[in-house]
Design brief:
The complex is a heterodimer of chains A (about 110) and B (about 160). Chain A has about 110 residues and is mainly alpha-helical. The longest helix of chain A is centred in the N-terminal third of the chain and has 44 residues. Chain A starts with a helix and ends with a strand. The radius of gyration of chain B is 18 Å and the shape is globular. Chain B has two helices and nine strands; from the N terminus they run αβββαββββββ. A five-stranded mixed sheet of chain B has the order 4-3-2-6-7, covered by helices on one side. A four-stranded antiparallel sheet of chain B has the order 5-1-9-8. In chain B, a hairpin with a 6-residue loop joins strand 6 and strand 7. Classes of the chains: A mainly alpha (about 110), B alpha+beta (about 160). Strand 1 of chain A pairs antiparallel with strand 5 of chain B, so a sheet runs across the interface.
Chain lengths: ~110, ~160
């Protein structure tokens, strides 16, 4: 009888020690899943796709891209070389405009900045 | 005397079509006071089908930044041969850029559209900020820009 009682006590302690934290964890997960599911459902109803990780939605193609000169200035530096990779374009007046069918006589353009 | 007259007639006949088929057109682009450094601008034309036809002007001399003029760059692959002889400095905020070009008559009232892509340092790129059909009727009419360009017009 005493042996049976000890076994019963040990099994109860095991269940309490292992089972309760596991049950608690499962219950806790439900607590977070509820609002998450509700938020997902709200997005779906609104016809929008939820953004969970990235905020890059590709809106307007390249509109989020930014030019960064790193101190370069057209006025300070006329070197158009791209680190030796690509030659810069010939400035206006140094050669005739390209023969692309848009220009009538090949006359040099006149430019003025006010 | 007869030979001279014949030569004169021949040269006139050869020269006249060139003069008659082109006209000087002034493109005026005024930038907003957007509070940044000089803007890069690519001014180019698309044909009636919307395909890239050619470039008219590039404001900004450093080819490494051309990828930020993204529609122009996509159409040309950044090929600087497209803008040889039609490239100048970038344009400061609040400034007005006036370019006078000798453009072919065939561009007007034929479904061609002039576009401007714009980009400024550490600010958002602005492809196709301006898209205006080239028509005789549209000459002199000011078109507002979206981000960096206050307005654009062309005059004949």
């Amino acid at each position: 009888m005493k042996k049976t009682f000890v076994t019963l006590l040990a099994s109860t302690a095991l269940i309490a020690g292992i089972g309760l934290p596991a049950w608690s964890a499962m219950h806790g997960a439900d607590l977070f899943e509820g609002p998450r599911d509700a938020a997902l459902a709200a997005f779906r109803e609104a016809g929008a796709s939820p953004m969970l990780v990235s905020d890059d939605d590709g809106e307007g193609r390249d509109h989020e891209r930014r030019l960064h000169r790193g101190g370069d200035s057209d006025e300070e530096d006329d070197d158009d070389s791209d680190g030796g990779n690509a030659p810069g374009p010939a400035p206006a007046g140094s050669v005739a405009p390209p023969d692309n069918g848009l220009f009538g006589t090949g006359a040099a353009p006149k430019v003025q900045v006010n | 005397m007869k030979t001279i007259l014949a030569a004169l007639a021949l040269t006139t006949a050869l020269t006249f079509p060139g003069i008659a088929m082109a006209r000087p057109v002034t493109l005026t682009t005024t930038l907003k006071d957007y509070g940044g450094n000089g803007a890069y601008l690519a001014i180019y034309v698309t044909d009636p089908k919307g395909a890239y036809a050619g470039s008219l002007w590039m404001a900004g001399t450093k080819s490494k930044y051309y990828e930020h003029l993204s529609d122009w760059y996509r159409a040309t692959g950044g090929n600087t041969a497209e803008i040889n002889g039609i490239t100048g400095a970038s344009v400061g905020a609040g400034r007005r850029l006036e370019i006078t070009l000798d453009l072919a008559d065939a561009l007007f009232d034929a479904g061609y559209t002039v576009h401007i892509d714009a980009a400024a340092e550490d600010m958002r790129d602005s492809p196709n900020e301006i898209a205006v059909p080239l028509t005789a009727e549209g000459a002199g009419q000011s078109v507002p820009g979206r981000r960096y360009i206050a307005n654009f017009s062309y005059g004949m």
